[in-house]
Specification:
Protein name: FRIGIDA-like protein
Family: Belongs to the Frigida family.
Strand order of the largest sheet: 1-2
Pfam family, one: Frigida
Keywords: Coiled coil, Developmental protein, Differentiation, Flowering
Number of helices: 7
Shape: rod-shaped
């Protein structure tokens, strides 16, 4: 009986030992489980942190991608600007070469222009020298004409003095001499009143002088027939009127419609016939024709010539 109880006790003790072992094992397992739970919680925390870091990293990646896109855009812009710069550089080089060519052409044209200016200047200088020589010759001719005029005036004055002396010696008529002197002075006044330094006519009013004259028609006719400066002649004694100053004087005389004395008309008729004969040889000079027509009109000589002749 005791053996049974001892055996039962041993068995119970053994079971009790087994329970303790199991309990220790369970506690160990529990500790392991708790440790695993802690590790799991730690891992979850780490996972959350990792996810947070992942989100941050994803944001950084997105930002990087955005910056990468911007950088690629800038790179494309740079490449485009680089291409444009190279194109502009080529255009600039081309224009620079073109400019150099134009500069060379300009320099060439400038040299040609200088040569042309030099040639033109020399030509104009030669023409100027020729004109100056012509002017000097003309001045010299005018001086000769003035000297000849002065000489003729002196001769006329000597003739008048000689005539006056003869009249005094032979009992001549002083009044006639005074009239001759007055007529000569009037002719001289008319001749010099419209002659300038070159011997050309001046457009001045001489109507008062003509009106104040005792016989303006006679004076004008004498100026034409016996001018201080001789008129050009055809042949030996043929007088022609191709001087504008005489035409001007006839036109002024025509405006006052002077009274023509018979003796003056006879002298004018002789002059008109002489002019008509000269015009048969040459009708190209319009001044001769105009002078002839003015003589006919002023001195009333139309009836002495046929209409066909006029």
């Amino acid at each position: 009986m005791l053996r049974k109880e001892l055996a039962s006790l041993k068995k119970s003790f053994a079971e009790c030992n087994g329970q303790q072992v199991e309990e220790r094992r369970l506690r160990s397992i529990k500790r392991d489980i708790e440790k695993c739970c802690e590790e799991l919680e730690n891992m979850e925390t780490q996972v959350k942190e990792f996810e947070t870091e992942k989100n941050i990293l994803d944001g950084q990646v997105n930002e990087f991608e955005s910056k990468k896109g911007e950088l690629e855009g800038l790179l494309r812009d740079f490449e485009s600007e680089k291409t444009n710069f190279e194109r502009r550089q080529k255009e600039f080089e081309s224009k620079e070469k073109e400019f150099e060519i134009r500069v060379m052409e300009f320099q060439s044209k400038e040299e040609e222009f200088k040569v042309q200016v030099k040639v033109l200047f020399e030509a104009k200088e030669e023409k100027f020298e020729v004109k100056m020589q012509q002017f000097e010759n003309q001045v010299e001719d005018n001086l000769k004409s003035v000297k000849a005029l002065e000489l003729k005036e002196n001769q006329i004055e000597v003739q008048i003095k000689d005539l006056k002396s003869k009249l005094n010696n032979f009992g001549g008529q002083p009044k006639e001499l005074e009239l001759t002197e007055k007529q000569h002075d009037e002719e001289k006044e008319f001749d010099t009143s419209y002659m300038d330094d070159d011997g050309a006519s001046e457009e001045i009013d001489i109507l008062d002088n003509l009106r104040e004259s005792s016989d303006p028609a006679k004076i004008v006719l004498d100026i034409i027939l016996n001018p201080i400066i001789p008129l050009p002649k055809k042949g030996d004694k043929a007088v022609i009127i191709d001087d504008e100053s005489r035409i001007y004087l006839l036109e002024k005389l025509m405006t006052i419609s002077p009274n023509i004395k018979p003796c003056v008309r006879d002298e004018a008729l002789k002059l008109a016939r002489e002019l008509k004969a000269n015009m048969k040889e040459n009708t190209e000079n319009y001044l001769e024709v105009l002078g002839f027509l003015l003589i006919l009109s002023i001195y009333g000589l139309h009836t002495y010539f046929d209409e066909d002749e006029v």
